[in-house]
Amino acid sequence: MDAGSEEGLLCLQLARRHPGWSLVAADIAEEPLRRGREWARAEGLDVLHVRCDLTRSLGHDVYDVVVALESLVEIPDDRAALRAMVAALRPGGLLVAQVPTADWIPVLKSAERTWRREARHGYDAAELTTVLEDLGLDIQQLHPTFRRLTALAQDVRDRYKRRGVVTQLLLLPLMAAVVRLERAGIGWGPARGWFVLATKR
Fold it and tell me: Which CATH number fits the domain that encloses residue 127?
């Protein structure tokens, strides 16, 4: 399950690579889910797009993996959402999350100073560790990510995102190059996010 999936881009990509997997894109907003359903139908991809409130039950012992990428800070009751996600994992199941740090700031002074639709600004490592362990997870990885170079590229992309398709296409090589550098551990400055892998006891 991709929790807070919007259109379900992650599930669509996984469905292309792993057609035998059962994939669920879950979000509270119907419009992005509708777009995602149309894209899945157009490609013949087997992804279930589900409108749901992530703070309510998502089932018990249902999923091998629950992913929450940059969605937890948009949920006012993030603890309830995390409880529901953990309950939905099978024992030994994996929670994968990406969240902003509590003290992140944009690189460019003119950039947005809040996360899109944020209900909270972010998390510090100690708080995140305590919350996840209290919910019955064993943290396998908790490491900083999204350093200054990646944050700068994001700020530039956000500045020009309404300039049309051509501008977006011109920015794609820049974004791809920055992602490759981040994955290789090349960057500088404080992290703007935490990447979390945790297993259910």
Answer: 3.40.50.150
